[in-house]
Design brief:
This is 6-phosphogluconolactonase. This protein is an alpha/beta fold and 246 residues long. The chain has helices at 15-35, 48-60, 89-96, 120-131, 184-187, 203-210, 235-238, and strands at residues 8-12, 41-44, 72-75, 77-79, 108-109, 136-142, 166-169, 179-182, 190-197, 228-234. It is built from 7 helices and 10 strands. The strands form 2 sheets. It has a 7-stranded parallel β-sheet. It has a 3-stranded antiparallel β-sheet with strand order 4-8-7.
């Protein structure tokens, strides 16, 4: 993003309206890319608004606009827990969306779970192989009240990693502690980056990121799309923004 490429800010009335709007945008964007003969790639996120978005996409899945077997799905981060743990971002997305659409499992690329055979570092290295040189069409990211994105948390050494695509986070301040995350280097290969943020509890983090606060205190500042960066907010999440941005 150059200085001229200001992020776009979209504000919807509330959580559910925001989720429906994002779901519509996702379906339209994927359909348009497929109409160009492309197999779109999407980076998925965990979190509360993301879960509502995934359910809203599933409700739209039967309209035939998207061939879901011709979409590549990746994850921006994952909790390194047992495969059947409800803490897995993969499990959350499968329940809300992937179990309801006709995906090609060869195009679903989850981050490895703690199945007893792998270390956190093994899972991190494996995902680096999966995403190597991958350019993502859409990167969707939730944002924490502390400004974290994926599993890049304020003050952590992982924020400075710029020589690889994945990092291990063994001590996340938000449970569960063991996580694997894409780095800025990988996330910033996204053509379009969409921040999905709901609720007044995140309004300060949103305001700091859009004011370009330092990444060490607001990690979300460091992610931007090569073509477009869009902050998709509800009124609560937008409530600390200056009036011209709301
Ligand atoms: O831990 C995580 O948190 C964020 C945001 O979650 P939320 O519940 O505050 O919406 C999420 O984007 C990330 O993928 C996840 O691992």
């Amino acid at each position: 993003m150059t200085v001229d490429d200001e992020p776009e800010v979209i504000v919807e009335g509330d959580h559910d309206r925001l989720a429906r709007s994002i779901a519509d945008q996702l379906v339209s964007t994927l359909a348009a890319l497929q109409a160009q003969g492309r197999v779109p790639s999407v980076v998925l996120t965990g979190g509360t608004i993301a879960d509502t978005v995934h359910r809203a996409v599933a409700e739209r899945a039967d309209d035939g606009r998207v061939d879901w077997s011709r979409v590549d799905f990746y994850w921006g981060d994952e909790r390194f827990v047992a495969p059947d743990s409800d803490d897995r971002n993969e499990r959350q997305v499968r329940r809300a969306l992937l179990d309801h659409i006709d995906v090609d499992e060869a195009r679903v690329h989850p981050i490895a779970a703690d199945d007893g055979t792998l270390t956190l570092e093994d899972a991190t290295a494996r995902y680096a192989d999966v995403v190597r040189d991958q350019v993502f069409d859409i990167v969707m990211l939730g944002v924490g009240p502390d400004g974290h994105v994926a599993s890049l948390f304020p003050g952590k050494a992982t924020l400075a990693v710029d020589d690889r695509d994945t990092v291990a986070e063994p001590a996340s301040p938000k449970p569960p502690p063991a996580r694997v995350s894409l780095t800025y280097r990988a996330l910033n290969r996204g053509r379009e980056v969409w921040f999905l943020v709901s609720g007044a509890g995140k309004s300060d983090a949103v305001a700091r990121a859009l004011a370009r606060d330092d990444v060490t205190t607001t990690p979300a500042t460091g992610v931007h799309g090569t073509e477009q960066t869009v902050w998709m907010l509800d009124q609560g999440a937008a409530s600390a923004l200056p009036a011209d941005l709301r």
